[in-house]
């Protein structure tokens, strides 16, 4: 059959369109006999969303339906496979990257106004002359105060491209007019090392709050600085650390283990095993190390504790850790959102998995803390449930257990005096921080001549300030709170919070650790050896 020339362009166009359509449907991992078949499970979801989009009686945001569907699917896998919506990706990425571009201030939205708590040391705002107590009124001639402006909107105005300038108008007490500052935006670190200082002449202390991209570099710097001033022993505080990047945990473990010691191995669904070994680059292979863990130390924290425990390196001190032995990989979903999907399990060098069971669902899994509390495990090591079938032995003959967290070598019970429910609530809700800020803001000059060292070692919170805090709380909460039973604990938290707002850089931890029973236990262990 002959085709007239005038129809050739039309037929060619149809052929190209058909090719594009078919090509869009191809999955090159499929077998040839399935190439044109449909996936009924995927089709079902797609059809349902299309029906809602085109036929449902009311207008519906199908994006939100997709989000709910994705979350529902992941909840049926394991507790740690999670969905990250598009709007949360930047915040999550910055947190794990370890920095962002901004002006470098910590602040409160105080009485509807951005109020600087402290300018980041060495950051752009400090260089420009901004100090604690300053109220930032305008950014690039736009007001950033008032009840209608949100923290997200404020942060968006203060962030921007690297090396770009932002013009700020600032109210400062004692000044008759607003002050003008031009601040050049720069990389602002999100610190993962909360504190690094000496507990004694030879015993250093480093607290890590998460394992981000920048953590190993921060840790290495802190360790070298402590070694320069005499640290031959180290306390590594991983309490409350929820984890992070596996490779960062491996790098930190490598600092303590000799070359070719096994750090961990992972196994995926196909049974593929990947082992990680220490290299010769470690700077603390000969030093004594104590690792502090608690029921909120998870994932990468447990990798560190488990690797050192199984290699008979150092002493694990505290309470049984969280029990997360699953490894996630972040995968983009094409619209700016992502999923962190569990892709393997990890095992400590002796071969134990420390992942606790999630067979009874996510709610039961996350309620495990309350179950531990109720059966007395946080106060008595004899109440820790172990299974003989999950017993392992380290090279030097120490018995360790799998099946749900790292059990410490030296148990330290929960300090019930410091874990008073009222104090914990007040700290988490920010009441202590707000009160301290107001007290400090009344007379900052009174603290100007105090050095960090003198404040931490000598400054005392008096009873009048505790009473003032009590009155502040009763006014704010309309409650009837008294601190008779734990007056000293309240003083300690007020002092630590004041130290943080004045000095930052681990001052809070230095104060709090002065009355920390786990630190006291380490000091006793260290002096006895």
UniProtKB/TrEMBL annotation:
Presence of keyword RNA-binding: no
Q: Which InterPro entries match?
A: ClpP/crotonase-like_dom_sf, PDZ, PDZ_sf, Peptidase_S41A, Tail-specific_protease
Q: Where would I find the PDZ domain in this sequence?
A: 89-159
- Entry-linked Gene3D superfamilies: 2-enoyl-CoA Hydratase, Chain A, domain 1, 2.30.42.10, 3.30.750.44
Q: What is the taxonomic lineage of the source species?
A: Bacteria, Pseudomonadati, Bacteroidota, Flavobacteriia, Flavobacteriales
Spell out the protein name for this chain: S41 family peptidase
**Cited SMART domains:** PDZ, TSPc
Q: Which PANTHER family match?
A: CARBOXY-TERMINAL PROCESSING PROTEASE CTPA, TAIL-SPECIFIC PROTEASE
Coiled-coil region(s) at which residues?
none
Q: Which family does it belong to?
A: Belongs to the peptidase S41A family.
What are the alphabetically sorted keywords of the record?
Hydrolase, Protease, Serine protease
UniProt KW 4Fe-4S keyword: no
Tell me, what's a Pfam family for it? Peptidase_S41
């Amino acid at each position: 059959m002959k085709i007239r020339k005038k129809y050739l362009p039309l037929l060619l166009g149809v052929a190209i369109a058909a090719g594009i359509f078919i090509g869009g449907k191809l999955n090159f991992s499929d077998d040839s006999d399935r190439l044109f078949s449909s996936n009924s499970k995927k089709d079902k979801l797609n059809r349902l969303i299309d029906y809602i989009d085109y036929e449902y009686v009311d207008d519906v945001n199908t994006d939100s339906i997709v989000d709910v569907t994705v979350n529902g699917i992941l909840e049926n896998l394991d507790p740690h496979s999670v969905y990250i919506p598009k709007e949360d990706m930047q915040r999550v990425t910055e947190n794990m990257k370890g920095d962002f571009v901004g002006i470098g201030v910590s602040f409160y939205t105080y009485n509807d106004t951005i109020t600087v708590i402290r300018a980041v040391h060495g950051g752009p705002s400090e260089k420009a002359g901004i100090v604690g107590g300053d109220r930032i009124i305008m950014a690039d001639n736009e007001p950033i105060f008032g009840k209608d402006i949100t923290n997200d909107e404020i942060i968006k105005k203060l962030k921007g491209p690297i090396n770009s300038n932002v013009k700020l108008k600032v109210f400062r007490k004692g000044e008759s007019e607003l002050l003008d500052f031009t601040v050049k935006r720069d990389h602002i670190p999100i610190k993962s090392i909360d504190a690094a200082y000496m507990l004694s002449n030879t015993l250093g202390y480093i607290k890590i709050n998460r394992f981000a991209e920048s953590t190993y570099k921060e840790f290495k710097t802190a360790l070298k600085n402590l070694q320069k001033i005499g640290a031959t022993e180290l306390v590594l505080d991983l309490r409350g650390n929820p984890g992070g990047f596996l490779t960062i945990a491996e790098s930190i473990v490598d600092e303590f283990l000799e070359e070719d010691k096994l750090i961990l191995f992972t196994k995926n669904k196909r049974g593929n095993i990947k082992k990680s070994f220490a290299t010769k680059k470690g700077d603390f292979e000969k030093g004594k190390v104590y690792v502090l863990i608690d029921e909120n130390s998870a994932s990468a924290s447990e990798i560190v504790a488990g690797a050192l425990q199984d290699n008979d390196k150092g002493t694990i001190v505290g309470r049984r850790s969280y029990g997360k032995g699953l490894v996630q990989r972040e995968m983009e979903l094409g619209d700016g959102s992502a999923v962190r999907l569990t892709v393997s399990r990890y095992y400590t060098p002796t071969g134990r998995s420390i992942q606790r069971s999630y067979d009874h669902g996510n709610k039961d899994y996350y309620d495990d803390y309350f179950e531990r509390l109720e059966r007395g495990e946080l106060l008595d090591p004899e109440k820790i449930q172990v299974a003989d079938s999950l017993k392992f032995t380290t090279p030097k003959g120490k018995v360790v257990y799998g099946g749900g967290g790292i059990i410490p070598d030296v148990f330290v019970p929960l300090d019930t005096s410091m874990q008073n429910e009222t104090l914990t609530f007040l700290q988490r809700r920010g009441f202590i921080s707000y009160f301290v800020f107001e007290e400090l803001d009344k007379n900052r000059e009174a603290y100007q001549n105090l050095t960090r060292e003198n404040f931490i070692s000598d400054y005392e919170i008096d009873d009048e300030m505790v009473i003032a805090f009590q009155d502040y709380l009763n006014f704010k909460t309309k409650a009837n709170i008294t601190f008779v039973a734990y007056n000293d604990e309240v003083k300690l938290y007020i002092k630590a919070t004041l130290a943080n707002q004045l000095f930052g850089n681990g001052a809070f931890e230095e104060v709090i650790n002065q009355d920390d029973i786990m630190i006291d236990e380490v000091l006793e262990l260290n002096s006895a050896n």
